Amino acid sequence: MTTDEIDETELIASLNDILEAELSGVVRYTHYSLMISGPHRIPLVDFMKAQATESLVHAQQVGEIITGFGGHASTKIAEIEETHRHDIEQVLQESLAHELNAVRLYRALLAVVDGRSVFLEEFARSQIAAEEEHQLELRKMLRDFA
Fold it and tell me: Which residue blocks in the chain are alpha helix, DSSP H?
């Protein structure tokens, strides 16, 4: 891959959007793990903590790619709407919306690198697959509320 095949400005902007979203996921899921209450608290807290950890790993991976291309990793996080509603259904709905946005961002990255970098294509595709899997899990959890 040569750097002139990819618009590096567009690439780094796309990656920074993802980085900010993943970092917001760390905060979002950590917050949820603290705020969830009720009879299903223990398994949901474990799930949310795992999501926070995974978001941090994804943020670190994206940051490494940004700096590998000579970019500057953002120190911002994407906006997190605080509804002050922490019932299980609300938390799961907000989590699903977050995961849907993550897929959108990784698909945007894929559009930037498609046909230009096998490494970045595979990275984007693997992240899309992971986020889609999270969506399926969240949809299953939400079935009890339908």
Answer: 8-35, 41-68, 88-113, 118-142
